[in-house]
Each structure stands twice: as C-alpha cells, then as structure tokens.
Design goal:
Layout: E1 3-4, H1 7-27, E2 33-39, H2 43-58, E3 62-68, H3 74-85, E4 92-95, H4 105-110, H5 123-130, H6 139-150, E5 159-163, H7 170-179, E6 183-187, H8 194-198, E7 203-206, E8 224-227, E9 231-232, E10 238-239, H9 244-247, E11 253-254, H10 261-280
C-alpha cells in the first residue's frame, strides 16, 4: 500500500514555521492582510472562501471578504479591485474563481496590483514564473511542490505527467517540475491515449476536474500520485480525480481527498500573503527552496 502524504499535518507544520515571521511583522506594526472578492453565491466558492478566512483569523491575521452580487458588471468589479490596490493596509487581493459567465476573469486578474496578486495569476507574475524568478507561486502548485519535498521525492530526471492544462494548476505545475529537473508531459482533453501517458509517470499530478478519471491500471508501480481534484458524490462524500482505492495499491506515495492538496493550497495562500507583507515592509522573504 502507498504511503499517504498528509496535507493537514504538513500545512500545520508550515503554519507553525511562519509564526516568527508573522511576529516580526507585527512588531513593526504590520499585520498581514488578505481581501477576497466573492462575486455571486456559488456554494462551493462560499465554502472555499470561508475556509481561507478562518485560517487567517485563527492565526491572528486580517481577512476581509468583499461580497458582490452575481449581476455585478465588469466595470464595478474593476472599480472594487482598484480601491483595494490603493489601500496600503491590504497586502493580498484574491478573486475567488470561477466568476459569473458574463465577467472576464483575465481582465479582472490583470487589474490587481502584481505586488498584491497572492494567487500568482497576474500576467506579470506568470511571466516571472516562466522565466524562473517567481515573485508569487500559484498556491496549489506551490503546495504540491512542498508535499513532494516533505517526502524527499527526487524530482531531477523523473518523468512527470500532469493531467490538466489549466492556468491555475496544470501550466504552473509543469513549469515548477521542469525547473526542478523533471521531464514533463502535460495531458489535456485532446490527449489520444491518456493511459499510455500516465503509465510512464514517476510523478503523476491529476488536475483535470473529472472524478475518478485515473485508476490503478493507469499508474506505474511505485509512482508518486498527487490528486488535485475534489468533487462531492451523490452520497455527500468527497472524492478526487484519482480512484484512491485502486491507485493506492500501486503508488509509492499518494495524496488523499480530502486532507491532501486542499489544506496545502490554503496554507500556501497564507505564505504568499506573509511574503507580500514582508516585501511591503522592506523585508526579503525567506522562501524555502522547492526547486
């Protein structure tokens, strides 16, 4: 059976490791602050925002949520973003995705001050990641890299396969793994023989957004399997993009759902917000190496 990579336990360690940095900022009169913009009433988005908010509050940090009606115009959304850009007490701005269909998420993200873009999605920050000098690393891929490091998984020279090519997970995940020395393949909905690709993977990252897309027959013996997906089944239970029962019989390491990548995404948002506050205070962030 696989060894579980416990995202809850690792995220708790990372939070503990941030305490000195947070105290240093507070001694200078600076409390790291995140503002999340939530447009509409999507239930899943509301849960994500609540979890993020609670994480910050529990650590004595500032977390605000700006709730806008679903019919909010692009102009009104940009107006709200510009207001937060100008607020020196706000260190991080996050737009909870997905936005309602009539809103252009890329335009909205591009309106965020890059120094407050703690999701790392602004084109300036995406370009910095592409060239190997990231200011903010997108939270989910950042968390995955920390999970791999926590188990001393050797990346250099490994075959890494990512299922899913989104700007949020797939593409930045590929860049980080490539920078760490892996040979990377990205699969998408047009990939002709998905199993042929996944069976080559020493490190398999499933981020396609389809429940149980990956099963044990699609995994090489001893592979490291990272499940980014999260879905609620008809019985109310959560599952991922990977069929955990069959995959865990072949993988060397595997992440569970829930309790795997999810907690890591939230804690890396915390890390990015602390880094933003440190830069604002003239402190060089002490980022733990992941590549």
């Amino acid at each position: 059976m696989s060894e579980i990579i416990d995202g809850k336990a690792l995220s708790a360690q990372i939070k503990e490791g941030l305490s000195d940095r947070i105290n240093t900022l507070k001694s200078k009169g600076i409390t790291p602050s995140l503002t999340v913009i939530l447009v509409g009433d999507d239930p899943a988005s509301a849960v994500y925002v609540k979890n993020k908010h609670q994480t910050f509050i529990n650590l004595g940090l500032i977390s605000e949520v700006v709730r806008l009606p679903a019919e909010t115009s692009q102009e009104k959304l940009i107006e709200q973003i510009e207001k937060l850009n100008k607020d020196d007490t706000v260190h991080g701005i996050l737009i909870q995705l997905p936005l309602p269909p009539h809103l252009n998420s890329q335009i909205a993200i591009s309106s965020i001050d890059p120094s407050k873009d703690v999701d790392g999605f602004h084109i300036e920050n995406a370009g910095a990641l592409l060239t190997g000098n990231p200011k903010f690393i997108p939270c989910t891929p950042y968390g995955v890299m920390r999970m791999l490091k926590s188990k001393d998984i050797y990346i250099r020279g490994a075959e890494a396969v990512i299922v899913g090519a989104s700007n949020i997970v797939g593409k930045p995940m590929a860049l980080l793994l490539q920078m760490a020395g892996a040979t990377v393949t990205i699969c998408n909905s047009k990939t002709r023989d998905l199993a042929a690709q996944t069976k080559r993977a020493d490190i398999l990252v499933a981020a396609a957004g389809k429940p149980h897309l990956i099963n044990g027959e699609m995994i090489k013996d001893g592979a490291v399997v990272i499940d980014v997906g999260i879905h609620r089944k008809e019985d109310g239970k959560l599952c991922g993009d990977v069929d955990f029962e069959s995959a865990s019989k072949k993988a060397s390491f595997i992440t569970p759902v829930p309790g795997g990548v999810g907690p890591m995404t939230i804690v890396m948002l915390l890390v990015n917000t602390v880094e933003a506050a440190e830069r604002k205070a003239g402190i060089t962030p002490q980022r733990e190496g992941i590549i």
